[in-house]
């Protein structure tokens, strides 16, 4: 997401860009696939028309815990679209913009070999050299540039379901957040009349059910009857769920080296319940390109980005702690019914604001 966005913006400014992507073709990724208003704006600016790709409008957020659920309209327009569809469109846009796209090729190492030279070595031994690199490997770290450990040891899963007709109608235009001990999950419709269930759980809770997806899903439905209702009679559409581990929520990269702009999940990892990771990926890509064009050194950019994202990140972490608290889980839906405005306020506060853009220090250089 961040890598494509930065490549497109740079190529449109007349820069020579090579995008290295290890997947030969876009595939399903662990993601709730919720596109916030800011993400939609950035995608539109990149030339991506999500409606024409089949994106489903999302108007409501519903919170369910224990035996209660509460609902509030979203304070911004939002949509949902599978990552496979979105990534396919972004790669095509990058190729159209003149980016040299190397697909099915994996970066093994990234090292500075001279003051103004970064060398990228691929798994087949091929090397590329460039004065500037944008690091956008998402959830996967490169040796020597890794993010810190994830102390909570989060595990994330995604599964598509064909819901029964009645349950699909109930879920129409809504994104539902379910709380359960050790984590939370979200279910929402995506294109093609199917639903995405994406969830996170701390490894020690997964251990209690023998690290098995079927046991975990059964336990979550037991703890959250709202999910059991949604999934009653539903048909799983993937042979097994897609999973990832090592998600250092709350991380913001403090600094970087000259010529290395870190973007997307390599710059910051916001708790997933906010549905704002894609927006941050696009936002950090846009800001990094502006900084690069203005010849702002990467370490200065990275430090400014950190302070611009800090408040949003800390608020999101505070809210995530609340969701993981047993007492809060019990009373939250009740409180939200009484005062649904809280949900709208939380949704707004945990968003990356466009005015939080990182303005480069120097005037843009000639392109
Ligand atoms: C459980 C969960 C649910 C989420 N739900 C949402 C949501 O609903 N809405 C939302 O906005 N955000 C959500 N997010 C966050 C969102 O998925 C990420 O923030 C976003 O994808 C980050 O974009 P990125 O460009 O940094 O990484 P990615 O989109 O993951 O892209 C990284 C790319 O780098 C490639 N790559 C990795 N390593 C190498 C290598 N060595 N060589 C070459 N290529 C490589 C990968 O193949 C991949 O294509 C969720 C995250 C999780 C964990």
Outline the fold blueprint.
Elements: H1 2-12, E1 18-21, E2 34-35, H2 37-45, E3 56-65, E4 68-80, H3 83-96, E5 100-103, E6 107-114, E7 117-122, E8 127-130, E9 133-135, E10 154-162, H4 165-171, E11 174-180, E12 183-190, E13 194-202, H5 203-208, H6 213-223, H7 225-231, E14 235-236, E15 242-245, E16 260-262, H8 277-293, H9 298-323, H10 326-338, H11 341-349
Parallel strand pairs: 1-5, 3-11, 9-16
Antiparallel strand pairs: 2-4, 3-4, 6-7, 7-8, 10-13, 10-14, 10-15, 11-12, 12-13
Residues 1-3, 20-23, 29-34, 39, 106-107, 136-140, 142, 156, 198, 200, 247, 264-265, 272, 275-279, 281 line the site of flavin-adenine dinucleotide (FAD).
How would you describe what is shown here?
The protein is built from eleven helices and 16 strands. It has helices at 2-12, 37-45, 83-96, 165-171, 203-208, 213-223, 225-231, 277-293, 298-323, 326-338, 341-349, and strands spanning 18-21, 34-35, 56-65, 68-80, 100-103, 107-114, 117-122, 127-130, 133-135, 154-162, 174-180, 183-190, 194-202, 235-236, 242-245, 260-262. Strands 2, 3, 4, 10, 11, 12, 13, 14 and 15 form a nine-stranded mixed sheet that branches. A hairpin with a 2-residue loop joins strand 11 (174-180) and strand 12. 44% of the residues are buried. Bound molecules: flavin-adenine dinucleotide. Flavin-adenine dinucleotide (FAD) binds next to helix 1, strand 1, strand 13 and helix 8.
